[in-house]
Amino acid sequence: MSDQSTPSTGTSGASYAAAGVDIEAGDRAVELMKEWVRKTRRPEVLGGLGGFAGLFDASALKHYERPLLASATDGVGTKVDIARRMGVYDTIGRDLVAMVMDDIVVCGAEPLFMTDYICVGKVHPERVAAIVKGIAEGCVLAGCALVGGETAEHPGLLGPDDFDVAGAGTGVVEADRLLGAEHIRTGDAVIAMAASGLHSNGYSLVRHVLLDRAKLDLDRHIEELGRTLGEELLEPTKIYSLDCLALTRTAEVHAFSHITGGGLAANLARVIPDTLHAVVDRSTWTPAPVFDLVGKTGEVERAELEKTLNMGVGMIAIVPGQSVDVALAALADRGVDAWVAGEITDRGDHGTGAALVGDYAS
């Protein structure tokens, strides 16, 4: 627990418990989460849960010629409100790991370890443990260890059922294997990897359109979704870390782009050099029904949807033309739905960055 202070010695004076902080509940939450944290353990991790800092044996990096550490931090935004409304807490942690570790893998780095921060209005031990369970499951999917974290109880600032999550992660990449814009060339292919759904971005728009304006019930079965609205909105973000690393070992990869807040074009533009331009053809895929649901229900223009939501693409790999077949085969072997969605061209009159062209396949 955070913000611990010296307890009052008076019998009728103020106390930490009277102020709304339950240290015993926090201790119970730690006990419940221990088994899930153990499942993420890597051989480089020293010590156990409960120390003031997580320890990672850096001697494991000795075989690197010039190891570069990559770090990232993120949260899952207002998707936590959907989890709170649904009373489902064991998936939001996977979203957190995806947001952090899939940013790290973009440069070619192997995820090593992660820490989390869970802030609640009131500690419900089983609820906190469920959140950590999701984080631990995400760490296993990303190949990293969960080495520590913090659970903070903030009565008076948050309601008893309110919470938020954030995390930070570290990875490592050999300097001469660092991926990025400097490797991209004209004629490279843009390979898209399918998203599992909305992932963890744009939920302020989604909530505004579907819940606040349309007043849709989260328990309502939506025929075009094939499940309830709440189940769709809580679909965990796909974690691509190990898939991307496997791809770099199988095929030549010049760059990755994690499609998060800002949409496909804006995130792809972040890895495109000023002299080149990325063209993505919408006709190469059909966005999942949830995107159409948001667009039609809220009368949201396509440009607004595309700069807010991932539109069905969660990760991009940019590879040379001769590596396309090998790359697609490698991703298919790992069960990743992927396709060639575009190409890299000279800048010409297009300007810098990336653009979507054509219409989505029906």
Automatic annotation (TrEMBL):
The answer to whether UniProt assigns keyword Transcription to this entry is: no
Cellular component, GO annotation: cytosol
Q: What does the record give as EC number?
A: 6.3.3.1
Coiled-coil stretches are none
Pathway participation:
Purine metabolism; IMP biosynthesis via de novo pathway; 5-amino-1-(5-phospho-D-ribosyl)imidazole from N(2)-formyl-N(1)-(5-phospho-D-ribosyl)glycinamide: step 2/2
Q: Which InterPro entries match?
A: PurM-like_C_dom (IPR010918), PurM-like_C_sf (IPR036676), PurM-like_N (IPR016188), PurM-like_N_sf (IPR036921), PurM_cligase (IPR004733)
Respond yes or no to whether keyword DNA-binding is given for this record: no
Pinpoint the PurM-like C-terminal domain residues.
186-350
In Gene Ontology terms, what is a biological process of this protein?
adenine biosynthetic process
Provide this UniProt record's keywords sorted from A to Z: ATP-binding, Cytoplasm, Ligase, Nucleotide-binding, Purine biosynthesis
Task: Please report which protein family the annotation says this sequence is part of.
Answer: Belongs to the AIR synthase family.
* UniProt cross-references to PANTHER family, sorted A to Z: TRIFUNCTIONAL PURINE BIOSYNTHETIC PROTEIN ADENOSINE-3 (PTHR10520:SF12), TRIFUNCTIONAL PURINE BIOSYNTHETIC PROTEIN ADENOSINE-3-RELATED (PTHR10520)
Matching entries from NCBIfam families are given as:
purM
Q: What is this protein called?
A: Phosphoribosylformylglycinamidine cyclo-ligase
- What is the originating organism of this protein? Streptomyces nodosus
